[in-house]
């Protein structure tokens, strides 16, 4: 009896030490991850000249909205913002529709070529043609300086296809067979049975595609640099940052000191960089918490490939 009590006490002490270590470690990890984000927000609301001195922690030392007025006051930024929203919505819709239809066909066990075709799509995840052949292909299709270049090449994603196919194979065959016995066509089965049951994986794929489309700027730089009305937010923010850094290098320390002496605020590359980071991240940060559970579910699905 005494040995059991000692063992229980020993186990409790070890468990307490283990959990204490875990809590401390996770707390330090959270601080290490949250501090750069909070610091970036603080710098974005801080005066530029004051930010050059450094030492800004979790709160702006000299609060100002000039950085956001400078960035959001440019009409190109607002136009690019709405273009990014439009591009993201179109890309999400087209990717989900086309990829889900292909995944439904490949998930049917009676479709014998489904497995080899899925393998071909998987190979594209590891081998691609490269930048120059892709540019030649896009140019030959007449999609340079057009909106189509944002959504046509991304209608099918191999990774999203595998996720959808894996999920749709878990749908009971009895449901699909019952629909066929009732006279439902393959398209009606896909639309009225498979799609409603696939809402979790559809939300997961929508999140994947939306985050990728929102953060992409390279295709606008490569294919649509000659069409200003098709510029996206990330590309315009890159240009604003490059312009601010160039102006910061050209401005002398004496002029900055003079402005500081007159009590004028100044926008510097450091504060512009922080402001651009916040502006680009806020839309995704707003949407992500609502779809987080689907994101975790999608990661689990992606780890199982047949």
Automatic annotation (TrEMBL):
InterPro entries per record: MetI-like (IPR000515), MetI-like_sf (IPR035906)
Pfam entry (one): BPD_transp_1
Xref: PROSITE patterns: ABC_TM1 (PS50928)
GO aspect biological process, one term: transmembrane transport
Residue ranges of every copy of the ABC transmembrane type-1 domain listed in the record: 81-291
Bilayer topology: Multi-pass membrane protein
UniProt-annotated location(s): Cell membrane
Segments traversing the membrane: 21-38, 84-105, 117-136, 148-168, 189-214, 272-291
Organism superkingdom: Bacteria
Keywords linked to the UniProt accession: Cell membrane, Membrane, Transmembrane, Transmembrane helix, Transport
Cellular component GO terms, alphabetical: plasma membrane
Recorded family membership: Belongs to the binding-protein-dependent transport system permease family.
Name of the featured protein: Putative aldouronate transport system permease protein
């Amino acid at each position: 009896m005494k040995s059991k009590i000692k063992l229980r006490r020993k186990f409790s002490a070890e468990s307490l030490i283990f959990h204490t270590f875990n809590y401390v470690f996770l707390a330090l990890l959270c601080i290490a991850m949250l501090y750069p984000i909070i610091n970036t927000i603080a710098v974005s609301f801080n005066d530029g000249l004051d930010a050059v001195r450094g030492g800004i922690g979790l709160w702006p030392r000299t609060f100002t909205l000039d950085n956001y007025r400078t960035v959001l006051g440019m009409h190109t930024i607002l136009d690019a913002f709405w273009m990014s929203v439009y591009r993201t919505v179109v890309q999400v819709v087209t990717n989900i529709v086309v990829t889900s239809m292909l995944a439904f066909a490949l998930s049917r066990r009676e479709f014998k070529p489904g497995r080899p075709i899925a393998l071909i799509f998987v190979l594209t995840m590891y081998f691609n043609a490269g930048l120059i052949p892709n540019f030649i292909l896009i140019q030959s299709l007449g999609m340079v300086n057009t909106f189509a270049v944002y959504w046509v090449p991304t209608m099918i994603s191999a990774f999203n296809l595998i996720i959808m196919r894996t999920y749709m194979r878990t749908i009971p065959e009895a449901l699909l067979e019952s629909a066929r016995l009732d006279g439902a066509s393959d398209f009606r089965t896909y639309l009225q049975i498979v799609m409603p049951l696939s809402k979790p994986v559809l939300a997961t794929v929508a999140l994947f595609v939306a985050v990728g489309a929102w953060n992409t700027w390279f295709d606008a730089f490569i294919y649509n640099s000659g069409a200003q009305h098709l510029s996206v937010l990330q590309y315009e923010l890159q240009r604003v940052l490059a312009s601010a850094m160039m102006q910061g290098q050209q401005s002398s320390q004496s002029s900055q000191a003079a402005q500081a002496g007159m009590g004028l605020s100044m926008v510097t590359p450091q504060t512009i960089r922080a402001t651009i980071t916040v502006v680009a991240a806020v839309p995704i940060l707003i949407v992500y918490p609502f779809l987080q559970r689907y994101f975790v579910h999608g990661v689990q699905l992606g780890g199982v490939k047949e």
